[in-house]
Amino acid sequence: MAVNSVSSLGEPLGVGSIIGESFTIFFRKFFTVLILAFVPTLIGLVVTGQLVGWGLAMGDDTNISLEAFSGMGFALSMVIQFAVYGLSTALLVQMAYDSKLGRPANVAAYFSRAVQSIVPITLLSIVAGILIGLASLALVVPGLWLYAVFSVLVPAVVIDRAGFGALGRSTSLTKEYRWPVLGSLILIGICSWALSFALTFVLGLVGIGFGGAAVGAVSIVLFAAITGVSYGLSAVAISLIYARLREIKEGTSMNDLASVFE
């Protein structure tokens, strides 16, 4: 692999380009993005709801007791949430590269590769989440900084095949670019929240008129769809951040990255 780190470091990340291209891919492939994020999210939500209750799983129960946050059920539900996020991101990273290169989506292949990577992605995401959480307890800024440090963990597993070395790989790739990476992630996070809010409002209006037992099922599906949209935009942005960092530091083109899927 050719490495151009000496000559290319200092090149801007291109936050504006990343944000713009994230939206372009997201809306161009909206239904593909939705499906890839929705299916794992729905399955995870149903399993979590059975473990800890629908109120806690969907975050809409204001009377949750402290006991709900203890026990094996809650711990298992947290592992499931990390796995769902990791699986969704792994699927969408592959889709984003194919979309950028104008290639058709291959959902079956995406699932096959993502499932093969799910164990390291889940375990490393838990480790990263714990570290970020502990740093955030001290001060918010260190937590955000660590979020940027580990932000390209999933692409490192799926594309680099870094396995359990993905934390180190993400740390290396984001070095010297963590603040612009964080800026990109914050902007995308705000946009994801705005999209989720808008969809919640619109789908809430559509949902008016459902009654009886249908309300629960409809709410679960809509919640999974809205969460999937948020996951989708974030995952596309992360894949583009990773690609840009590889381009700056190693001279790796998008075609080179996508070739690992062939």
Explain what this protein looks like in three dimensions.
By secondary structure, the protein is mainly α. It has one domain. 78% of the residues lie in helices and 0% in strands. The chain has helices at residues 5-8, 15-28, 30-52, 54-58, 72-100, 107-138, 140-149, 153-158, 166-174, 178-207, 214-250, 254-258. Helix 3 packs across helix 11 and helix 5 (72-100) crosses helix 11. The longest helix is centred in the C-terminal third of the chain and has 37 residues, at 214-250. Keywords: Membrane, Transmembrane, Transmembrane helix. The chain crosses the membrane at residues 30-52, 72-97, 118-139, 145-167, 179-208, 214-243. This is Glycerophosphoryl diester phosphodiesterase membrane domain-containing protein.
